Amino acid sequence: MIERRDVFQAIADPTRRIIIQKLLRGPLNLAGIGEDFGISRQAIAKHIKVLNECGMISVTQKGREQFCEARLSQLDEVADWVAASRKLWSQRFEKLDKFLEETKKQNI
To answer: What's the predicted TM-score (pTM) here?
Structure first.
């Protein structure tokens, strides 16, 4: 069974979020991405695989090196979800505020 990956899975892990931030400055090879992490190159490669499968980065082969570049259009999905959730919860809290005000007036 092939596991379906999405942008939410990509950004769920702090290491992957840091990798995305590093790639915002421009393309990097795996060694460049792995700097500053206390994990193996193999572990970095696994994170890169997830990000690539989610469409958050593209990986190109140049000679013996693999270079990664950020593809952030997928974050629009996250922004849309956050906006919709914020709207939903704002509406719910407004209803709750009205209910509490009405309840308070009835008890006075």
So the answer is: 0.73
